[in-house]
Design goal:
- By secondary structure, the chain is mainly alpha-helical.
- A 3-stranded antiparallel β-sheet has the order 1-3-2.
- A hairpin with a 2-residue loop joins strand 2 and strand 3.
- Helix 1 packs across helix 3 and helix 2 packs across helix 3.
- The protein is elongated, with a radius of gyration of 19 Å.
């Protein structure tokens, strides 16, 4: 089972999924650039991800380097399922209708949804 990961932790995971192995300092530099998080907070997020089993850590000299211990696609699939289960009782048709039925969908988005459904039907 995949660990639950907060939005702030996902920011760390995105960096590690995109560039790995990657050191603590580089992760911290990338995430402190917006001024929203302190280096100490980022280090806490990294430690939590290691504790949860989402990241693997290897010490090289004086710095730790991290690699993902969970696959991005598996995580995203799990998140989609959790979202559908939590907000729509697992009913994917209800999920889609909530986006389509509110009248805020564009013609282009509707065509994209049709294309996705058509492709999915071919795979079934």
């Amino acid at each position: 089972m995949l660990p639950r990961i907060s939005d702030a932790e996902i920011d760390v995971m995105e960096i590690v999924w995109n560039d790995n192995p990657i050191g603590t300092n580089e992760i911290t530099d990338r995430l402190t650039g917006d001024g929203e998080r302190s280096p100490k907070t980022i280090q806490t997020l990294i430690r939590r991800l290691v504790d949860k089993g989402a990241l693997s850590a290897e010490k090289r000299g004086r710095q730790f380097y991290y690699t993902p211990a969970i696959d991005r696609d598996d995580f995203i699939d799990n998140q989609k399922k959790r979202f559908a289960d939590r907000f729509f009782g697992g009913d994917v048709a209800l999920l889609v209708s909530s986006f389509v039925g509110d009248g805020k969908i564009t013609q282009k988005e509707l065509e994209e949804i049709r294309s996705i459904i058509d492709s999915a039907e071919k795979e079934i």
